[in-house]
Specification:
378 residues; alpha/beta; Aspartate Aminotransferase, domain 2; Aspartate Aminotransferase, domain 1; eight-stranded mixed β-sheet; 38% helix
């Protein structure tokens, strides 16, 4: 290929909307309202409308969003919070940092999201919350998770960092956006996300008025009235320039997600007949917006394949090489690895690899990537 292949082509995406982005940033600079400028409240309102929720509260990043959610629900040290084993560490590290006990369970082998069958078995009298992660662009099985949570009177915090814009499809045909189903939804606007800003950013979603007030207060030093601190909070705000960028990109989110789906379909068509690969499965209960296009290598040397791709100018990534239950960081914290048995996560960490996936992928680039993979495997 003559041009450099990107895992995520942020520059190419920017150039298509350059005039709008530049104008929106310049308007913030001209106003000098860099903190809590009008763009923040406008973006929160627009995202709330898009998601079909009553409240969106911006914050500094997706990890903060998870921490603020746990704090707003009144969880205490020693409380247990169930999370999937196969996910980015942010989902679990905030639980540990707050003195709560992460209870890590294995995932579904098809969707890589939290397995509801294992979920109920992990619940104890100390369980206070579940954090289902909508991984790689599709939802966990929320209908089953909600049923279990209601049965045991525990909270749900949805981690939507990789699935902003995904549709959850109920058995009766009703559709809801990811993040609008649990007690609180959280997301990240890290630049490579489907809806990403030009730095760090995050948000929380809820339909509960009292919770929304608590989220706003915690994210702003525990204040409801300036300089009156009713609770201990944190300093975590979505800055105005990032909100301005997100307002522009939100208008294109459906188009961006559609482009990713078309790219995923192209990958499927080119790689689906290779018996050494397992292409991503689509859940019956969720759309898939392909934050990542993640394959499983079932026959072959993954390290050698990745090396070969790199030599041919093709980037790839392993999300994730080490499951949470095996992370050294948690040796210092109280972490419960349910049954200490994670066959699915262990297998995924040994076999998965992700290909370039972004809104600017061309068919020619995808064909080159796939031809190179098949040439190595055959």
């Amino acid at each position: 290929m003559d041009s450099l292949i990107q895992m995520c082509d942020l520059k190419g995406q920017y150039l298509k909307i350059k005039k709008e982005i530049d104008l929106s940033i310049q308007e913030v600079i001209d106003s000098s309202a860099f903190i809590k400028g009008k763009e923040v409240s406008l973006f929160q309102d627009e995202l709330a409308k898009y998601l079909g929720v009553k409240h969106v509260v911006g914050c500094a990043n997706g990890t903060d969003a998870l921490q603020i959610a746990l704090m707003a629900l009144g969880l205490k040290p020693g409380d247990e919070v169930i999370t999937p084993d196969f996910t980015f560490i942010a989902t679990v590290e905030v639980v540990a940092l707050l003195g709560m006990v992460p209870v890590i369970i294995d995932v579904d082998p098809d969707t890589f999201t939290i397995d509801p069958q294992k979920l109920e078995k992990a619940i104890t009298p100390r369980t206070k919350a579940i954090i289902p992660v909508h991984l790689f662009g599709q939802c966990a099985n929320m209908e089953e998770i909600v049923s279990i949570a209601k049965k045991h009177n525990i909270y749900i915090i949805e981690d939507v960092a990789q699935a902003t814009g995904t549709n959850y499809i109920y058995k009766n045909g009703t559709i809801a956006k990811a993040g609008s189903i649990g007690d609180i939804g959280t997301t990240s606007f890290f630049p490579s996300k489907n809806l990403g800003c030009f730095g760090d950013g995050g948000a929380l979603f809820t339909n509960n008025d009292a919770l929304a007030e608590e989220l706003r207060s915690i994210s702003n030093h525990g204040m409801k009235i300036r300089y009156y601190h009713d609770i201990i909070g944190v300093n975590s705000r979505l800055d105005t320039i990032q909100a301005a960028v997100l307002r522009v990109k939100l208008k294109y989110l459906n188009e961006y997600n559609s482009n990713r789906v078309m790219a995923a379909d192209k990958y499927d068509n080119l790689l689906g007949n290779c018996n050494k690969l397992i292409t991503p499965k689509r859940a019956s209960w969720s759309s898939h917006i392909f934050h990542q296009y993640t394959l499983q290598l079932v026959d072959g040397n993954r390290a050698e394949l990745i090396k070969y791709l790199s030599e041919k100018g093709i980037p790839s990534m392993i999300y994730y090489p080490v499951p949470l239950h095996a992370q050294k960081a948690f040796e210092l914290y109280q972490v419960k690895a349910f049954n200490k048995n994670f066959p699915v996560s262990d297998k995924l960490c040994e076999s998965v690899f992700s290909l370039p996936m972004h809104t600017e992928l061309t068919k020619d680039v995808q064909k080159y990537i796939c031809d190179t993979i098949l040439n190595f495997l055959h």
